[in-house]
Amino acid sequence: MSVIEARRPWSDTAKAYALNAPAMIVIALLVAYPIVYSFWVSLQRNNLKRPRAKRFIGLENYRSLLTDDAFLSALRVSALFVLVVLGFTVVLALILALVLNERFRGRGLLLSLALLPWAMPGVVNGLMWRTIFDAKTGALNGLLSQLGLIDTYHAWLTSGTGAFFFTAMAQVWNTLPFSVIILLAGLSTIPSELYDAAKVDRAGAFQRFGQVALPWLLHPLLIVLILETMNAFRAFDTIYVLTGGGPGDATTTIALLDVQTVLTFTDFGLGSAYAWVITAITLLISIGYIGLLYRKGNFEV
Amino acid sequence: MELNRRQILKYAALGASLPVTSSLLSACSSGDDAGGASDGTVKFEGWDYEANLVQQNLDRFRQQNSIKVDYTPITSAQYVQKVVAEFTGGGGPDALYVYDDSLAAWVEGGYLQPLDGMAGVDDVYAGIFPGNAEAMTYQGKKYGLPYYTDSNSLTYNAGILAKAGITKPPASLEELEAQALKIKNAGILEYPIGLPAQLSDTWWSWVWALVHGSNGNFFGTDQAPIMNSTDTVVKDVFAWLQQAANKSKVLDPASLQLLPVPVDNAMKAERYAYTIGARYAARDYNDPAKSKAAGMIKLALIPSLDGGVHGTVSNTRMYALAQDTDVKDNAFKLVTYLGGLDADKKPYTAKFWFMQRGLGFAYKSMAADPEVTASLKKFADPVVYAKLAEIARPRNVLTVPWYTEFEAELHKVVQQVLSNQTTPSAAVASLEQTATTLKKKFS
Predict the structure, then answer these.
(1) Which residues cross the membrane (chain A) (predicted)?
(2) Nearest Cβ partner of A248 from B190, B198, B421?
(3) How do B95-99 and A44-45 pair as beta strands?
């Protein structure tokens, strides 16, 4: 009897591991290793400008965040940014999804147009809005001026409040389509009989939305909330191009501060600590969402 | 030979891995080249200002010396970060451009080697302005040969001033505001003053120029912050900026969205009457092929708080030699060609840059060169130009390792002042706190 014939066949589990091994190795090398390494770096004093001062300092970078004014300010800005972006995104996405869920002429075209911003990279989105908000040649100034709403052109991004609001709107515009798709998919799974039954029960439009559509949308909403919170918390490119974090630190979010700390100040230790804090906060918020909404959502009819 | 399934898979995997293996090997070999190839090629890096002209000058060097140069221009906005990353990864250049504000950190990082004792270096340092020599020296050692230097001026459009009936540039900040108001009230320009005040990684020379212009400083000689002390120059300059931006509204609020190039373009399009920037920009502004304002742009001293004292800020860009270069002799020849003196004891490249682009020079001898003065007269008043060089001072915190962090905070604070988000008193207090914290953190 040959050796091959004597070998016992692999179990399904072993085969599954063997077949997935190449992908798992690549993921470990390209994803897991950098993540673990960045945590290791966050435990060090590690500024490329001062290689001789590099050493292990434990949780000192994390402790320093508690008294780091720049970090605390960026955290406040980020939290507000998430609230504003999330609020506008969810409300607008719900409205758009409800509209697009109806049958009407031109629905396909409107759906295609609504998806367009999603295809746009953040930097391009930032550049486009920057052109629109330009103080000298911006389309917004031109439009408002032609409508007779303003006498002279305004520099919209030069006040703290203006810069924050317009940056948040640019972010909403970019990420809205994704939320619309998710909610539209959720709406399309609602059996029409439920609406019919609600109509028989003389439920109005708002009641049908509150009693029929919303419970079915809790799971899609959960996905939207988690992903959009993560997106807004990590928002960088649009803000960087539009305001660079200014005026002052009015739009300096934690992601922007992180990039500045790592790339401009070359402080990889502190920058990695910032990145881990962003991760931890996002994780906590996601767990909170799941705890709050997951059990309430019900696919059973 | 009959192939079974196992053999087919094995050969397929081998074949698939070949491109990866070969690219890894080639990456390794290119790393060798970067550290100095066996043929003596010098790996040279600089920010991307006029890369074609740099290459043109390097071609001349190659013809004269038979030394190959592998030149890589890097975008200015990312220059510092990319070079630091390269040195950290062990693949840095052999010779490179260095900003005066990066010198201390890069020496501390072990990226650069001193040039003391190398041929001709002492002659170079003896022939340049003391401020430039100081900017290229760290802890008593010489690290660079000069690329260019410049100081800031008030740059104004004499044509626009004339239309408003103004015959001479302002000497004080109060006068500058009054003149700008006159232009504004005459309906010539809504915002006569424009400054590049968008957050960026490069220094805001105009803030330093305004502070130095009134004989003030952010730091004392021991590099302790003095902006919030009895020396009120910084606070008063901030107060003037806030007033010009928010009360008299002569300073364009869109400045907060402007980088230097758009301000240059606005000056050339006659959309601003005044700005503060490097002297060499006047050459571009006065070029009829590029500028509507050609012939109208003049330089003046930086207006001060009292109109009596004057000063400005200077900067020095230099060529330096990497600590770990394997082609030290060739790299030093290149650095000498670019920043030093030629066989005739003349600074060829420094003159090349002035004649080509009007870049300021560190060599005292060039001020008397007839070709240089003739070229200078085409875009600036040589007397004002020389006076600005004479009164210019470099920033006195360039040797601290936390300079970049301070400069970034300065930008934010000045933006807050301009956009009325803070008061001048709070601004200087905030800057003092930042400097104190940074000093402690880096101690």
Answers:
(1) 21-40, 79-101, 108-129, 163-188, 209-227, 273-294
(2) B421
(3) unpaired
Q: Which amino acid is at A165?
A: F
Say if the Cβ atoms of A246 and B412 lie within 8 Å: yes
B238 vs A contacts (CB less than 8 Å)? none
Residues 6+ apart with CB under 8 A from A205: none
- Do A38 and A272 contact (CB within 8 A), yes or no? yes
B108/A250 touch (CB, cutoff 8 Å), yes or no? no
Domains of chain A listed by start with CATH number: 67-294 (1.10.3720.10)
Task: State whether residue B3 is helix, strand or coil.
Answer: coil
The answer to whether the beta carbons of residues B312 and B302 sit under 8 Å apart is yes
Residue A17: what pLDDT? 93
Q: Does position A251 have pLDDT exceeding 90, yes or no?
A: yes
Alpha helices for B303-402 (secondary structure H) = 328-339, 348-357, 370-377, 382-391
Confidence of residue B178 (pLDDT cuts 50, 70, 90): very high
Pair A215, A297: CB distance under 8 Å: yes
Residue A122 pLDDT class (50, 70, 90 cuts): confident
> Given an 8 Å threshold on Cβ–Cβ distance, is A160 in contact with B421?
yes
Cα–Cα dist B329/A225, whole Å:
61
Count helices and strands (H / E) in chain B.
18, 10
Give the three-class secondary structure for B156.
strand
Domains of chain B (ranges; CATH) run 40-150+315-377 (3.40.190.10), 152-314+396-442 (3.40.190.10)
Token pair belonging to B314: 């200077």
- Angle at Cα B284 formed by Cα B384 and Cα A134, nearest 5°? 115
On chain B, the residues whose CB falls within 8 A of the CB of A157 are 256-257
Report which of B411, B397, B400, B417 is spatially closest to residue B202, judged by C-alpha positions. B411
Task: Say whether residue B106 is in contact with chain A using an 8 A CB cutoff.
Answer: yes
Task: Please tell me what DSSP assigns to residue A223.
Answer: H
What is the rounded distance in angstroms from the CA atom of residue B78 to the CA atom of residue B202? 10
More confident residue, B416 or B39: B416
Asked if the C-beta of A73 comes within 8 angstroms of chain B's C-beta atoms, the answer is no
Question: What residues pair up with B44 in beta bridges, in sequence order?
Answer: B71, B95
